[in-house]
């Protein structure tokens, strides 16, 4: 819960909840020319509370000693109970926007004043860019740094691809800080592989990949974002090298207003992303375990089925063998029986021939009856 102080035309200070914050982002109507909506919109979207958290007029958050305070010059300034981190964030955002405006005017428009920029502000900006010795010194040093330490060297590209398009290519998921840096600062060239955009990017790439490989070989599970943070030597001037303003997605801002820090503190988004990744990996591991168990059960059922089939086939072979054996025995019995019958038939035929031959040599007595045989009174000797 925070707001802004806004001084009205009468010079009185009133509390600014939602309306005050919006007025502060736009700038007071009595305090100077109105800024570009492109400059103030991001501030409004980020730091203006909604109606659910603040009412139309948050006088309860304004100290009573300052509610009726008279001001000499109208304008907007922070209310006393504002969170220092919120104020620091707004200042950093303002510095970044001012830097972008300055770069646009000096580099892209050739010093021409935009219609929305007050003339006195433009004059001061041009004087600062052309006459201020400290600015000129920093500008000269930056030119050399961009050329590798010498103005005779060519300017190396800073990156090949933006982080937004990289996340889009990654299916909308946010990659790790190291992967994001490698994707945006390397380019795949046929025959050469992934080539870094500059010598500095090459050093960072080699160091990061070497550290990740060493941790993997030793079985150490380090956070890839922490490895990258340590590779680029932490935060400098409020930013992490290679990530730009998107560093807040991976690393929490410093607890104090200092712009440089070497301590690794993951951002809430990064923590949620890591927790989501861990839970996703655990879910995938569980699913893989279930699939393995199901596959093992299927293979076991398959083995049991094959074993049952083998037993069935073996039983069938035994039955077939027994049937063939019975058939052979029957054939053998039939053959023996046929042989015996044939032998008996042959013997009977032989006996029949013998009997018929014996009947041809039998003598008859004269007094025998015609049918043969001896009479009653015939001699037998």
What does this structure look like?
This protein is mainly alpha-helical and 381 residues long. It has eleven helices and seven strands. The strands form three sheets. A three-stranded antiparallel beta sheet has the order 2-1-3. It has four domains: 106 residues, no CATH class; 38 residues, no CATH class; 104 residues, no CATH class; 79 residues. Helix 1 packs antiparallel against helix 2 and helix 9 packs across helix 10.
What would the keywords be for this entry?
three-stranded antiparallel beta sheet; 7 strands; 381 residues; single chain; mainly alpha; 11 helices; 4 domains; disordered N terminus; two-stranded antiparallel ribbon; 6% strand
What number of structural domains do the residues give?
4
N/C terminus separation:
164 Å
Overall number of strands = 7
Radius of gyration: 54 Å
Strand content: 5-15%
Overall form: rod-shaped
Low-confidence regions: 1-63
Give average pLDDT, whole number.
71
Percent helix = 55-70%
| Main sheet strand line-up | 2-1-3
Q: How many strands, what sense, and barrel or not for the largest sheet? A: 3 strands, antiparallel
DSSP helical segment count: 11
Write a concise synopsis of the structure shown:
This protein has 381 residues and is mainly α. The protein contains eleven helices and seven strands. It folds into four domains: 4-109, no CATH class; 118-155, no CATH class; 163-266, no CATH class; 267-345.
């Amino acid at each position: 819960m925070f707001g802004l102080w806004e001084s009205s035309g009468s010079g009185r200070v009133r509390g600014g909840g939602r309306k005050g914050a919006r007025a502060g982002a736009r700038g007071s109507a009595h305090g100077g020319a109105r800024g570009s909506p492109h400059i103030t919109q991001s501030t409004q979207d980020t730091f203006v509370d909604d109606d659910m958290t603040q009412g139309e007029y948050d006088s309860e958050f304004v100290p009573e000693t300052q509610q009726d305070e008279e001001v000499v010059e109208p304008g907007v300034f922070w209310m006393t109970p504002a969170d220092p981190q919120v104020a620091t964030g707004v200042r950093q955002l303002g510095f970044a926007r001012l830097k972008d405006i300055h770069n646009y005017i000096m580099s892209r428009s050739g010093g021409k004043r935009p219609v929305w920029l007050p003339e006195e502000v433009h004059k001061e900006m041009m004087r600062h860019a052309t006459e201020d010795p400290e600015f000129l010194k920093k500008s000269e040093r930056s030119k050399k740094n961009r050329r590798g330490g010498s103005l005779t060297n060519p300017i190396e590209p800073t990156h090949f691809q933006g982080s937004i398009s990289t996340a889009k290519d990654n299916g909308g998921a946010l990659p790790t800080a190291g992967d994001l840096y490698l994707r945006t600062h390397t380019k795949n060239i046929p025959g050469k592989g992934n080539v870094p955009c500059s010598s500095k990017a090459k050093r960072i790439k080699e160091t990061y990949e070497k550290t990740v490989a060493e941790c993997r070989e030793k079985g150490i599970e380090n956070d890839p974002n922490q490895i990258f943070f340590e590779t680029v030597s932490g935060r400098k001037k409020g930013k992490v090298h290679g990530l730009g303003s998107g560093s807040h997605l991976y690393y929490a801002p410093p607890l104090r207003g200092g712009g440089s820090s070497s301590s690794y503190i993951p951002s809430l988004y990064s923590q949620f992303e890591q927790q989501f990744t861990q839970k996703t990996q655990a879910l995938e591991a569980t699913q893989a375990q279930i699939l393995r168990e199901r596959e093992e059960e299927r293979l076991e059922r398959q083995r049991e089925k094959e074993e049952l089939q083998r037993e069935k086939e073996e039983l069938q072979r035994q039955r077939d063998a027994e049937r063939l054996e019975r058939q052979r025995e029957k054939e053998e019995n039939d053959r023996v029986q046929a042989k015996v019958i044939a032998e008996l038939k042959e013997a009977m035929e032989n006996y029949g021939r013998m009997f018929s031959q014996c009947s041809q040599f039998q003598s008859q007595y004269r007094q025998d009856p015609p049918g043969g045989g001896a009479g009653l009174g015939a001699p037998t000797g």
